[in-house]
C-alpha cells in the first residue's frame, strides 16, 4: 500500500513539466557550482560554522519573493531532457510555514503548489491524473511511504534556513569535500519527523556558507535529492532580532540563496530557482505578512480536485480502526502449527484429544538376566539367560500360564491397568546380585 503514494507523486511532477511548456533541450545542465578557490590546508571549524549558520537562520524570519523557475525533466522515452519556464512566488515564515507557487508566465494562474505549516505538508499540480491535492500530517509521515524530497523541509534546509541543534552538531561527522576548500558536514536523522533523514551540508571553508546539500534515506546510501547553490543574495536588516530590547536597533547582514537548483534524483526532475530575477521586484526579507498572506499557508482549494491523504494510502485499515494489522504493510507466511499429540487416558491408552491426563506406558522391554542363578550355574550360564517364568504374587490370581523353557527372551505382557514398579528384594548372594542388577535399578517407566 505504501508504494502507491510515490508513483502518484511522480505522475504529478510529470504534469508540472508539461505545464511548464517543456520542450526537448540539449544536454542536462551541470549541477555543480563553480570550483572554490584552492586552500593550502583545511581551516574549517565546526563550532564556528554552526554558530554563524544558526545566527543567519535566526535573522531571517520571513521571505516574500517572486522568483523565476526553470523546469528540466528527463524524457519518458529516454530521449533528450525537456525544459520549460514558469513564474513563481515563494513565501517563508519561520519556523514551519512554507509555500512555493508555480504560475504560467503572463497569466498568473497557479499550476503547482508546494507548501507546509506546523501540522502538515501538501503538493498539488494542475492536471494530475488523480485530480487530487496530496497532503500528509507530520504525525502520519511514517505511514505515508513518501520520500523526504516530497516535503518542503529539505528545501528550507538546502536554503540554510533551518538551525542545527546542539545534539545534531555533537553527532555530526566531518569529511573533506569533492574539491579543495569544501568540507562536508553529515548530520544524522533528527527526532523531528520532517527531518528524519540523513543530511549532508557542503560548506565553503572560506565564507562558511552552503554551496550544496544532499538528502539521503536513513540507510545513508540512497541519494534522494540534492541542491546546488550558485549565488547568494545579501540583505541588510534594520534591526538584529538577537539584540537586547534595551539596546538601540543595530543593522545586521544576512544572506540566502539567490540562484540555486533542486534536483529530485529518482524522478529526474530539476528546478532552477532565481530569486532576484528582476531589479523591479527584489525579495522582501522580514516584511510583516498580511492576514491574507498568512492564510495562504494551507493546502489549496481547487475546483474539481479532492484532498488525498497520503497516509491513508499507506494504511491497511481505515483510520480509527484498532487491532493487529492496522499498520501492516507486508504479508508474512508461516507453517501451520502441528496438531497436539493425543493425550493418554487414565488407563495408559491414547484416545484422542481432550481425554484427560494419565500415565503413558512405554513399549514392552526385554528383561535380561532376571533369573536368579546358583553359584554353580553362574560359570556355565549363557550370555543371555532365559528370564524367570514366575509372575509377581499380586498377579497369581486367576488362570496361570506356564512359560515354556525357551531360549528366546521373555517379554512381559502390557496390562491395561496402571501398575507400579516391582518391589525389589535384596539378593541372597553376590552372584545373584550381579544377575539381578538390571532388574533392580531399571527405571519403573520402562515396565
- What is the succession of H and E elements? HEHEEEEEEEHHHEEEEEEEEHEHHH
CATH superfamily of the domain at 2-27 and 41-313: Lipoprotein localisation LolA/LolB/LppX
- The SS-based structural class is alpha+beta
- Alpha-carbon distance between the termini? 62 Å
CATH C-level of the domain at 2-27 and 41-313 = Mainly Beta
Helical element count?
9
Helix content: 10-25%
- Backbone CA Rg: 42 Å
Model regions low in confidence, pLDDT < 50 over at least 5 residues: 36-40, 316-331, 346-356
Enter the CATH topology name of the domain at 2-27 and 41-313.
outer membrane lipoprotein receptor (LolB), chain A
Shape estimate: globular
Report strand %: 25-35%
Count of DSSP strands:
17
Q: Major sheet, described briefly?
A: 17 strands, mixed
Mean of all residue-level pLDDT scores: 74
Second rung of CATH, namely the architecture of the domain at 2-27 and 41-313: Clam
